[in-house]
Amino acid sequence: MSDKFFFKGRQDARQSHIKYGYERDASRISGSKKYPLQLVVTNETRKVVVEALVADAQLYADISIDNSEGAVESISELTMLLNKTSSVKVEKLPGRNDICPCGSGKKYKKCCG
Prior knowledge:
Elements: E1 37-41, H1 44-56, E2 61-65, H2 76-82
Parallel strand pairs: 1-2
């Protein structure tokens, strides 16, 4: 007998997200020992400054110097990691019947709420 008469639902219930281009290698962390940042600077003094930034951020980087005419500095990976925004933590408001945080000793609903 054919399967088409007894088909219930999808043939493959588990759909893969890899087909749509969302595959990500979570083990690859840029700036680690295994995957260092690839940075290009234009002179030796700038290399010393960038090495100090990398050391302060506790990252690893391969820094090369390009002295050629019209060379462009490439440290965008480093600036992206250094300027990463952190999540904002919002302090929870007290409940109506909790003691007021202003220090009056009254309930929040009678004092500041």
